[in-house]
C-alpha cells in the first residue's frame, strides 16, 4: 500500500495527558499537511510542511500543539496537556509540487479525551 | 476570505435515484474546485476536480461542472447505489495557495 498512513487509528486518553500521532506520507510527496475534523464539519487546517520546513500554522494550533517533520519524510503531531475539546479526528495529507497541489489523505487518527 | 457552502444533509435517496448536492463558493481569482468523499471511519478521498471555468470533472459516475457565472460546482450522479452512502465535501483551492477551504460536508444515505 503506497497511500498515506497514520498511526494510531484510535487513541483514548485522559485529560492532561500528552499524545503523539504519526503520519507517513506517500514517499515522493514533499508536502505534508495536518487537519482536524470534528463531527459534522469539514477538515480544518492546522499546519503544513514542505520537506522538513514548517511553512504555515493555523491560529487553531495552540501552544499545546507541536508538529515536526525531521527528515522531510514522516511527521508527528503532539498534543500536550490534552483537553476534552481536543477530541476530534486528526487527518494527515500529502501532495507533490507540480501536480496541481492535489492532496491525498490518510485514514485519520480519532482522539477521544476523557 | 474564501468560503464554500454546501447544502445541508442528510440527503436520503432510494437506490437508482438521481443525486444532486449543491455547492457554491466565494473566492478571489480563479480557484480550483474539488469534491472529496469520506466513507465511515476513513479519511477523505478525492472524487473529482475541475481547474477552470466550464471544466467538467467526472469519476465513478459522478460529475460536476465549474460554473464561474454562478460560482457553483454542484455534484450529480444519475443513479446512486447503496455503496455511495458517505459524506461528500466540496472544496476550493485559490491560486497560489496550498491549503484548500472545505465545506461542512453533506451526508448521503442511499436505501436499497
Name the descriptors.
heterodimer; A: 114 residues; mainly beta; 7-stranded mixed sheet; 4-stranded antiparallel sheet; 11 strands; B: 112 residues; 6-stranded mixed sheet; 12 strands
Summed up:
The complex is a heterodimer of chains A (114) and B (112). By secondary structure, chain A is mainly β.
Secondary-structure topology with pairs:
The complex is a heterodimer of chains A (114) and B (112).
Chain A lengths: L4 E3 L2 E4 L5 E6 L6 E7 L6 E7 L2 E5 L7 E4 L6 E5 L8 E8 L8 E2 L3 E5 L1
Parallel strand pairs in A: 2-11
Antiparallel strand pairs in A: 1-3, 3-8, 4-5, 4-9, 5-6, 7-8, 9-10, 9-11
Chain B lengths: L2 E4 L4 E4 L4 E3 L1 E4 L5 E7 L5 E7 L5 E4 L2 E4 L9 E3 L8 E8 L7 E2 L3 E6 L1
Parallel strand pairs in B: 2-12
Antiparallel strand pairs in B: 1-4, 3-9, 5-6, 5-10, 7-8, 8-9, 10-11, 10-12
Structural notes for this entry:
The complex is a heterodimer of chains A (114) and B (112). With 114 residues, chain A is an all-beta fold. In chain A, 0% of the residues lie in helices and 49% in strands. Chain A has no helices and eleven strands. In chain A, strands 2, 4, 5, 6, 9, 10 and 11 form a seven-stranded mixed β-sheet that branches. In chain A, strands 1-3-8-7 form a four-stranded antiparallel β-sheet, with no helix packed on it. In chain A, strand 5 and strand 6 (53-57) form a beta hairpin. Chain A starts with a strand and ends with a strand. The mean pLDDT of chain A is 92. By secondary structure, chain B is an all-beta fold. Helix content of chain B is 0%, strand content 50%. The mean pLDDT of chain B is 94. Chain A binds chain B through residues 4, 6, 31, 33, 40-45, 48, 56, 91, 93, 95, 100-108, and chain B through 4, 32, 36, 41-46, 49, 51, 89, 91, 93, 98-100, 102-105.
